[in-house]
Amino acid sequence: MAKNLKITQVKSVIGTPKDQRATMEALGLKKIRQSVVRPDNPAVRGQAQKVRHLVTVEEID
């Protein structure tokens, strides 16, 4: 398992439910094409899974 995940926002949060917008903000994503690096753990993977249609996820070391 990778140590970190690189999560990149690829779609806008306009028109999405409030809980998905809150998840994006919790991940630290605010703009399209913005990337963040987060630790690879079940909590972060769950957040990424919830908004999988708005982001791309890459495993990095």
TrEMBL record:
GO BP terms in the entry: translation
For the Large ribosomal subunit protein uL30-like ferredoxin-like fold domain, which residue ranges apply? 5-55
Source domain of life: Bacteria
This protein's species is Mobiluncus porci
Keyword tags: Ribonucleoprotein, Ribosomal protein
**Subunit structure of this chain's protein:** Part of the 50S ribosomal subunit.
Which Gene Ontology CC terms are recorded?
A: cytosolic large ribosomal subunit
Task: Report the HAMAP family cross-referenced here.
Answer: Ribosomal_uL30_B
* Family statement drawn from the similarity comment of this UniProt entry: Belongs to the universal ribosomal protein uL30 family.
GO molecular function: any one? structural constituent of ribosome
| Protein's name according to its UniProt entry | Large ribosomal subunit protein uL30
